Amino acid sequence: MEAAFWQRLDEIITKTVRPMAARCDEESLFCGESVQALADAGFMGLPYPPELGGRGSSYESYVRCVERLSKACPSVGVTYATHVGLACHPLHAFGSPMQKESFLRPMLRGDKLGAFALTEPEAGSDVGGIATTAELDGGFYIINGHKIFITNAGRADIYILFARTGGQGTEGLSAFAVCSNDAGLLISAPQRKMGIRGAQTCELFFRNLCI
Ligand SMILES: Cc1cc2nc3c(=O)[nH]c(=O)nc-3n(C[C@H](O)[C@H](O)[C@H](O)COP(=O)(O)OP(=O)(O)OC[C@H]3O[C@@H](n4cnc5c(N)ncnc54)[C@H](O)[C@@H]3O)c2cc1C
């Protein structure tokens, strides 16, 4: 990544991220101002191709960016990495052309924030234990289940959701892109944490969400 871009990142860190860090953590205040500054400066699509609206930088640049942000404010680092790494990547790697246009492009532009909904009360390290189901019914999937510890929940526009469409274990899982305003998605109040409190973490409940 060129020197001017690193300089811009350092400016954002100095002017916005670092000055807000203590307050965001003490008051559990979402680090939205810092995220907006990163979006405005074109950091949300860093390691993705320009033809999709990304910056076309290396993955290493993205990792170094997360490192610098996290040193100044871990909440911003986690929020940013969840969007760029966890939420954008599945759409880029596996999304259909329609999903890339409708979801990924605005995410890379920084117009929409992403979240990644994998963990459940009985499925953390062992994702093969996921119990959320997506059942095919007349051309639509009906999703029911419960997710916990979801970073950016309540702030995100797009949720990459993992649910069971087949048999047991990881082979029976599929990923879906769910919008924050889809009927049947319920979001809890922010979960209380011991740190990184400027990043918002909530539970998600899916009640007959139709996709
Ligand atoms: C702040 C925060 C943000 C998060 N954000 C997200 C998010 O955005 N999206 C999301 O989907 N999830 C998120 N998570 C969840 C996170 O991914 C899980 O906490 C993690 O996968 C571990 O799962 P678990 O908490 O159920 O712990 P467990 O899987 O129950 O593990 C507990 C302990 O047992 C150990 N352990 C587990 N299995 C084994 C084994 N087979 N052998 C030896 N040791 C083992 C683990 O290393 C760990 O120390 C977040 C969590 C936190 C704390």
Question: What does this entry look like structurally?
Answer:
- The protein has helices at 3-26, 32-40, 59-72, 74-94, 97-109, and strands at residues 114-117, 133-137, 140-151, 158-164, 173-179, 185-187, 201-210.
- By secondary structure, it is an alpha+beta fold.
- It has two domains: 3-96, Butyryl-Coa Dehydrogenase, subunit A, domain 1, CATH 1.10.540; 114-210, Butyryl-CoA Dehydrogenase, subunit A, domain 2.
- A hairpin with a 2-residue loop joins strand 2 and strand 3.
- Helix 3 (59-72) packs antiparallel against helix 4 and helix 4 (74-94) runs antiparallel to helix 5 (97-109).
- The protein is globular and about 50 Å long.
- Bound molecules: flavin-adenine dinucleotide (FAD).
- Flavin-adenine dinucleotide binds at residues 82, 116-119, 124-125, 149-151, 193, 196, 201.
